[in-house]
Amino acid sequence: MRKKWSLPFYLADTCAREKGKKEEEEEAAEQKGIHENRKKAERGKSTEKKEEEEEAYWQQQGANSPASS
Q1: Which tens digit of pLDDT belongs to each residue from 13-26?
Q2: Which residues 6+ apart lie within 8 Å of 64 measured at CB?
Q3: Domain boundaries, the chain
Q4: pTM
Q5: Burial 40-50 (b: 16+ CB within 10 A, else e)
Q6: What is the pLDDT of residues 6-54, one digit of tens each?
Q7: Which portions of the chain have biased composition (kind: Basic and acidic residues) (predicted)?
Q8: Which residues contact 58 (CB under 8 A, 6 or more apart)?
């Protein structure tokens, strides 16, 4: 035989479940945001590295650099 739940207990249980789901969703969104920030940072690092390589190339070229124009 199934146990009948009282309304206050049922509502409290339902609210707790919803709160748990909401917290899980927020945590997942936060983790996704951290992951996206890492990807952006890595892209920034690769861009900086490319700029440094380009600068070194133009320094080797000497007077032909676009900066000296």
Answers
A1: 888 899 889 999 88
A2: 58
A3: 7-60
A4: 0.41
A5: eeeeeeeeeee
A6: 777 888 888 889 988 999 988 888 888 888 888 887 777 778 888 888 8
A7: 16-36
A8: 64, 65, 66, 67
Write out the two tokens for 11.
Answer: 């509502």
65 in Cβ contact with 58 (< 8 Å) = yes
Q: How many helices (H) and strands (E) does the chain have?
A: 1, 0
DSSP letter (8 states) at residue 65: -
DSSP reduced 3-state for 1: coil
Structure tokens at 9: 């207990």
CA distance 22 to 24: 5
